[in-house]
Amino acid sequence: MASRREGIKVNNEQPKTAESIMKNVDNISDTIKEISDKLVNNYCKSLDVEMDIIRLELRENNSLTDDTLEKHILELANILYFTGSAQEDLGIKEDTCKAIRQEVYSKAREQATGKTVADKTAQAELISQAETMTLAIYSRAYKKVKLRMDAGYEMLNSLKKVMNKRITEMELSNSRYINHSESEE
Q1: How far apart are CA 114 and CA 108, in angstroms?
Q2: Range with the lowest mean pLDDT among 9-13, 73-77, 111-115, 138-142?
Q3: What is the C-alpha separation between 181 and 175, in angstroms, rounded?
Q4: Could you tell me what percent of the chain has a pLDDT over 70?
Q5: Could you tell me the pLDDT band of residue 92, with boundaries at 50, 70 and 90?
Q6: Quick check: 82 pLDDT over 60?
Q7: CA-to-CA distance for 46 and 58, rounded, in angstroms?
Q8: Comparing 9 with 63, which gets the higher pLDDT?
Q9: C-alpha dist (Å) from residue 140 to 52, 105, 122
Q10: Per-residue pLDDT for 170 more than 60?
């Protein structure tokens, strides 16, 4: 009885292996990640610094003083304002890149020499590959900035909750003191 594998055709014409393809993907994605990370770091530098400071202070002290808490709330709100503006600038670049890529693709498809629609599409995609990769960089950078901003807002809300808890505890303590003082009279 014949094996099931005997009927499978193996492409011996291409020496590519999954490993070589994966290495190529790793090289290209590493380049995209590196460029994207530079953009993100440029847009999120002050947010990253503030989040690092908060993390270090929490590690060292296990809690923050009221003054430090107030400072971080104000600082984080201010930084998030400017980071949000920078994120929108990044979004504009992404939209512009998308339009440029579409223009290059459309012109390439129009001038393609292929006989079929699939041939013309393949040629246009190949010609607009650099623009597609640039769009991927801006798209990833935008998403990363958004993730960091979301984390920044989570931290801001957490700091506010801690501050509100302290205020409530202080008010409760003051009311107990006042009630205790009145009962002694």
Answers
A1: 11
A2: 9-13
A3: 10
A4: 87
A5: very high
A6: yes
A7: 18
A8: 63
A9: 22, 21, 24
A10: yes
Amino acid occupying residue 100: I
Measured CA angle at 60 (ends 144, 170), to 5 deg: 95
* CA 33, 34, 38, 41 torsion-angle sign: positive
Q: How far apart are CA 170 and CA 158, in angstroms?
A: 18
- Which residue carries 């909750």 as its tokens? 161
Contacts of 166 (CB under 8 A, 6+ apart): 66, 69
61, with CB counted inside 10 A (0-12, 13-18, 19+), is exposed
CA atoms lying within 13 Å on the CB side of residue 105: 15
**C-alpha span between 75 and 54 (Å, rounded):** 11
Task: Please compute the mean of the pLDDT values over residues 51-66 and round it to a whole number.
Answer: 90
Question: What value does the mean pLDDT take over residues 78-86?
Answer: 96
Distance of CA 176 to the CA centre of its chain: 47
Give dist(CA 112, CA 125) in Å, integer: 11
Residue 8, both tokens: 């499978």
Which parts of the chain fold into alpha helices (H)?
Answer: 18-61, 66-111, 117-127, 129-184
